[in-house]
Design a protein that fits this description.
The protein has about 290 residues and is an alpha/beta fold. The protein is built from 13 helices and seven strands. It is elongated and about 65 Å long.
Length: about 290
């Protein structure tokens, strides 16, 4: 089913560094001027809110009332750095939960007087904070670039097969939109490949760029993939479908720890039903024969 002398993801490990694609990055301090320009208004507004807040809880509530979603999220990120570094931004940014967050965690917020004193020691624009915020901005970009390049490559090799995907940072495809009777309709996936008739789902895909992985993160990633594969392929088996799974993973993180072995084990868990590939492996491993089998 798979062309070439290598039949599994494991077979590529010996020269794995030749099969990964490195995403382009941004150099420091090249990004510094743009970062300072972008985030100076955020720091100015944070300072204004800080001066008019009698407590850190009040500061948090004032931030939660900012109508502009982008500005509100950036302010939450600054708040986290100055006031509550133990709380994840994903929790802080839940606007409807602001009162609950304050009642549950407000007692551990850094006192507003200390926050004010610390903030006043920093210039506007604050280069260090601007770079920290810039890192949030670029998070996920490598993944979007990876999927875009995959879609272009796939359409080049399989022009007759429809592929459904979100546009860069668009919403993930939900399995309930792929199969109407799917038991976990909110399961997100990155793409779906159809036969030429546009009705039969040949493959479901998930794509990730691994910049670095290790320890618990490594286990979480492959463990989540295994759960997803078991769920989708069990459904496919029960309904006599030929739907398979493609895990598109790329980046230097594949060379760290046990990641390569973990993905090879994942591929072996459903022989012939799972392909783990990097971009460079696609022409050799993703074949029309495999997709339609």
């Amino acid at each position: 089913m798979i062309s070439g002398n290598r039949n599994s993801f494991a077979d590529y490990k010996a020269d794995g560094h030749n099969w990964i694609t490195l995403a382009t990055g941004e150099y420091y301090p090249d990004i510094l001027q743009e970062a300072c320009q972008l985030y100076a208004p955020v720091l100015v507004m944070f300072g204004q809110l800080l001066r008019t807040s009698e407590s850190s809880v009040r500061l948090f509530m004032q931030i939660s009332e900012i109508p502009n979603a982008w500005m509100r999220v950036q302010l939450y990120r600054v708040f986290r750095k100055y006031v509550s570094p133990e709380l994840p931004v994903e929790m802080l940014r839940r606007k409807k939960k602001a009162t609950d967050i304050c009642s549950q965690f407000g007692g551990r917020f850094r006192p507003v007087q200390e926050v004010q004193a610390a903030f006043m020691t920093r210039p506007i624009p604050d280069e260090a904070m601007s770079v920290l915020l810039w890192e949030y901005r670029s998070r996920g970009k490598k993944g979007y670039d990876l999927t875009e390049r995959f879609f272009s490559l796939f359409r080049l090799h399989f022009p007759d097969l429809p592929i459904r995907e979100p546009e860069r940072a668009g919403k993930d495809i939900l399995m309930g939109a792929v199969f109407k009777a799917y038991p976990n309709p909110k399961r997100p996936v990155d793409f779906a490949i159809y036969d030429i008739n546009g009705n039969d789902v040949l493959a479901i895909g998930l794509a990730r760029y691994d910049s670095d992985r290790g320890g618990a993160q490594e286990d979480d990633r492959t463990g989540g993939y295994r759960s997803c594969a078991d769920e989708i392929l069990s459904y496919s088996q029960q309904h006599n479908l030929r739907t398979k799974i493609i895990f598109l993973n790329d980046g230097p993180g594949l060379l760290l720890g046990s990641m390569w072995e973990d993905y090879a084990s994942l591929e072996r868990s459903w022989p012939g039903k799972i392909l783990v590939v990097t971009l460079r492996m696609i022409p050799e491993r993703v074949t029309l024969e495999w997709l339609r089998s």
